[in-house]
Amino acid sequence: MIEKTVHLGLLLDFYGPLLTEKQRKYFALYHQEDMSLGEIAEEYGVTRQAVYDILQRSQRTLLDLEDKLGLERRYALQREELEAILARLDQLVQTQGEQMDDPVSKELVAIRQLVAQMIAGF
């Protein structure tokens, strides 16, 4: 369940601007603020069924967009690749050991820091 919530949260991050304001609001309240259908319905003066329908339509839209555009899938792949690059750079830096004063080793450390910053920015 948590994995699905995280997945839907990422989809909302990527495709949220393509939903209507009401869809974004209800979706965020339900999936991120953990409000119930009844709480959302009461707050906005609509039925629970209306909230449910909007949430289902929103989820379907987000999943359809991901099927067509694949931004979340591409994001996950790029993150995995950056983490693999970082691991290899760590190995290279460790094998250099005490020879870290040469220009190539210093460049390896600088590149490693850049990759780590890219991962942190994801």
Structure description:
The protein has helices spanning 2-15, 21-31, 37-44, 48-69, 71-96, 103-121. It is 82% helix and 0% strand. By secondary structure, it is mainly α. The chain has six helices and no strands. The chain is elongated and about 70 Å long.
Secondary-structure element string: HHHHHH
Corresponding CATH architecture of the largest domain? Orthogonal Bundle
> Stretches where pLDDT falls below 50 for ≥5 residues?
none
CATH-assigned homologous superfamily of the largest domain: Winged helix-like DNA-binding domain superfamily/Winged helix DNA-binding domain
Class per helix and strand makeup: mainly alpha
Tell me the number of structural domains: 2
Radius of gyration: 22 Å
CATH class of the largest domain: Mainly Alpha
Mean pLDDT: 91
**What is the first-to-last residue Cα distance?**
23 Å
Query: Helix count, per DSSP?
Result: 6
CATH topology of the largest domain: Arc Repressor Mutant, subunit A
| Strands, count | 0
- Give the overall shape, derived from the CA principal axes: elongated
- Sheet with the most strands, sense and barrel status: none
DSSP helix fraction: over 70%
Strand content: under 5%
Quick overview:
The chain has 122 residues and is mostly helical. The protein has two domains: 2-69, Arc Repressor Mutant, subunit A (Orthogonal Bundle); 74-121. It has helices at 2-15, 21-31, 37-44, 48-69, 71-96, 103-121.
